[in-house]
Structure formats: structure tokens, C-alpha cells
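## Example pair
The file below holds two records. Each record gives the amino-acid sequence first, followed by its C-alpha cell line.
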Amino acid sequence: MIHIRVREKDNKICEIEIQGHADSAEYGRDLVCAAVSSIAFGLCNALDEMADMAGFEIDENRIRIYLTRPDETAEIILRTGLIQFETVAETQSKYIQIETEE
């Protein structure tokens, strides 16, 4: 299962951490993993291009996106990504869990 943890501070997203595998199909054919990975790397690229204070940790089984100083642009990017994750989770809830904490 893919676990997505979203941390908020003052109603702004300050961190998204994604870890695990969906295991919805054999390796290399898992469309749920492909969708989540695409969204995550798109967020990293957008934040890298458009927001100043974003950090990234990318391991084999984990992606952590965090902000050292949230701003309006980063919030819009991260909220858009969260909506995309939630959209995938609506039809693939067996493979994705999203948790939000303050």
C-alpha cells in the first residue's frame, strides 16, 4: 500500500511524504504506482521551478517534499498535488491511504 502523509501548519501544507508500493500489478506494470510517482515528481519539479524554499528527499521507497518557509505559490502547487492524489485514491483506495495531520 502507498501511504501519503500530509502535514499542515496554520492551514498550509508544509510537508508531503509518500512511501510504499501499491502492489496493484507486477513490477513495471503497476499503474497506481506510476500515477502516484508522476504526481510526486511533478510536484518536485514545479516547486523547484516556482517556489524558493522547498526541499526534497527521494529514496527508493520514499519521497518527502517539505517547505522550510511556505508561501502562496508553494501552497497552490501542493494543494493541487493533494487533489490529484485524492482523485487517484477515490478509485484505488485499496492501494492508497492519505492521512493529514496538523
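Second record, same layout:
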Amino acid sequence: MQNDYVLYTIGYEGRNIDEFIVRLKNFGVTRLIDVREIPLSRKKGFSKTALGRRLNEENIEYVHYKALGSPSEIRHKLKADWDYDYFFKVFSKYLASQKDVIEEVYNRLFDGVNCLMCFEYNHEQCHRSCVATKIKEFNGSLVSVEHI
């Protein structure tokens, strides 16, 4: 069966805000879904308020879902031992408890072009891949995931 909706994901690591915006526009993104638990950044332009303001100027909606961020205890353990297998296993279990939020994001996919955002450039080492997978699993026949 054909996928009718694409869910993009992006990391801002290694990009400045202008490059980031150009990338979103190149893919026609109309809504950026921030999946960081704490939407703050030392990188200029990527904290919640500044990012939301800039995206608004570019006609891209900004939405933040704290519940789809990696809980601090899971993040801190990963930073201590770099055990990605454990991280993804525990985070996936955590996401299973966030079904209402997953459904809410899934339902947004039918309105506009959506992109999940977190920090890591490499989606294979970022929790946004798990989030995207859970959203796709909600009804996999309709959604494909593309990392930009």
C-alpha cells in the first residue's frame, strides 16, 4: 500500500539557524514538532522562544511536546555509558506510556507537512527516530518517515 503522508525528522547539530530554516523550506515543512524534553539550546536561535518566533516569521508553525522528549534519567545514563541499545529499549518502553500524545501528533500529520526536531544530526543516535517509529506504528500504512 502507498504511504500517503511523510513525517520528516531533523537534527540541528552542526547547522546554524539560517541553514536549518532553508532545509525545512526545501522539504516544504509547514509545522516543526520539537520533541526535546527541555527545549533550550546553547546554540543561538534554537531555544523554544527564539525558534518559535523565527519559524513564525517563515510561516512554519512551531509545536513543542515535552512528553516526547527523553526523560532526564534516561538521557543522563546514556551520557555516562553510551549504551544506545539500553537507551532505545528504555525510551521505547517510556513512549508506550505516551499513547495519547503519539495519537495527537499522528492526527496532525493530515494537516500540513510535519517534521520532528531534536539536536542530534544522526537520527540513528537520537530518540526522535523512536518517536517517529511510534507515530508510524499508529497506522503504518499511511505514514512514511524520512530523515532530512
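Notes on the second record: The mean pLDDT is 94. The two ends are 23 Å apart (CA to CA).
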